[in-house]
UniProtKB/TrEMBL annotation:
Organism whose genome encodes this protein: Ananas comosus (Pineapple)
Binding-site residues for heme b, renumbered to this chain: H199
Cofactor entry: heme b; Ca(2+)
Residues binding substrate: P169
GO biological process: hydrogen peroxide catabolic process; response to oxidative stress
EC number per UniProt: 1.11.1.7
Site-annotated residues for Transition state stabilizer: R73
Principal location: secreted
Disulphide linkage map: C46-C122, C79-C84, C128-C324, C206-C238
Location of the protein in the cell: Secreted
Gene: LOC109715700
PANTHER family tied to this protein: PEROXIDASE 6, PTHR31517
Protein's recorded name: Peroxidase
Keywords: Calcium, Disulfide bond, Glycoprotein, Heme, Hydrogen peroxide, Iron, Metal-binding, Oxidoreductase, Peroxidase, Pyrrolidone carboxylic acid, Secreted, Signal
Length: 328
């Protein structure tokens, strides 16, 4: 099949599935322009903010490549609860960081380090929510993913509750549950499938998947949707819950569309990943993205930009923290 015909199939699928996803519950496009965010938000008050952030991200990832994936995930967990308001960063008893769903989150030191430098250069100016948004973008780019432009002006929230953070999807949900969760944030079916592609990098604690590989059925058998060779590999690798295994077993450190190809080979690590291929609403998109790396690469930036605007606080709806781990 020629490139142009496969592209038109993909475009058709994207259109078709966004229609299937139902009406976008968020503001229509012309109104999202007035989201209170601005490309030039720090132009006068902290013109070097983006430069400072990107240098720091480069520095940290050059010391530890695995931080790239962790920083991307941190932004998702932030936006998934109370919107992108830096609530995941707060370190007080009972805050989101203390939820079970936050147990393997990493990268907090990177944010604190960046915040310290920004407070030095432009005190009380750059919010933690904006820092985390830019960090996720820069980290993705640094490990070979796409780059996208951002608007700024998010304020930091004044609430962070562990029990709310238990609502972040952790891999045992149904596809319907995932679709509903994403829709409640104004994100479509397409955003769900594309953003799940973040699992092309990074790792997963064995504790999160042991139920799939050892004792899934009532007869104590593994999840039958897992490829047998892959199952064998996982059963040997994941004896201890505290061990880790790669989310994309084939190209774990490369930001590519092989994650989707793995799903076609029954090699999705999380049950939620694997089910995206089996489900008739999401399966056609998995196929289109598996076939076209460029489509994934380009759409990932588009969907991340949408993610970064979920329920943002602006103006006096929030504060600019001086330390990202504590309310002012
Ligand atoms: C669609 C629903 C999602 C589910 C059910 C899910 C679930 C998970 C789980 C269970 C892990 C491993 C946690 C552990 O260590 O045990 C993980 C890791 C990860 N997730 Fe997701 N996730 C979802 C969406 C996303 C999104 C939207 C992004 C980013 C845009 C993302 C980025 C990541 C990354 C990069 C990692 C690896 C982190 C690391 O290596 O430190 N996930 N996810």
């Amino acid at each position: 099949m020629g490139l142009s015909s496969s592209l038109s199939i993909a475009i058709f699928l994207l259109y078709f599935t966004s229609v299937l996803a139902g009406p976008d519950k968020k503001k229509p496009d012309y109104l999202t322009q007035i989201d209170g965010l601005d490309t030039d938000y720090y132009r006068k008050t902290c013109p070097k903010a983006e430069e400072i952030i990107s240098k720091k991200v480069k520095h940290w990832i050059s010391k530890d490549y695995t931080l790239g994936a962790s920083l991307l995930r941190l932004h998702f967990h932030d936006c998934a609860i109370r919107g992108c308001d830096g609530s995941v960063l707060v370190n007080t008893t009972g805050s989101e960081r203390y939820a079970k769903a936050s147990k393997t989150l990493r990268g907090f030191d990177v944010i604190d380090d960046i915040k310290a430098e920004l407070e030095d250069k432009c005190p009380k100016t750059v919010s933690c929510a904006d820092i985390l948004t830019a960090v996720a973008r820069d980290a993705t780019h640094e490990i070979g993913g796409p780059y996208w432009s951002l608007k700024y002006g998010r304020k930091d929230g004044r609430k962070s509750l562990a029990e709310e953070a238990e609502g972040v999807p952790m891999g045992r949900e149904s596809v319907t549950g995932l679709i509903q969760f994403f829709q409640s944030k104004g994100l479509t079916l397409l955003d769900l499938v594309v953003l799940s592609g973040a699992h092309t990098i990074g790792r997963c604690s064995c504790g999160s998947i042991q139920y799939r590989i050892y004792n899934y059925t009532e007869y104590g058998l593994a999840d039958p949707s897992i490829d047998l060779k892959f199952l064998n590999f996982l059963q040997r690798k994941c004896r201890q819950a505290s061990e880790y295994t790669e989310l994309d077993a084939v190209t774990p450190t490369i930001f590519d569309s092989v994650y989707y190809k793995n799903l076609q080979q029954r090699m999705g690590l999380l049950s939620t990943d694997q089910m995206l291929y089996a489900d008739s609403r999401t399966g056609p998109l998995v196929k289109a993205l598996a076939a076209q790396h460029n489509l994934f690469y380009q759409q990932f930036g588009v969907s991340m930009k949408k993610l970064s605007k979920v329920q943002v606080l602006t103006g006096d709806e929030g504060e600019v923290r001086t330390k990202c781990f504590a309310f002012n």
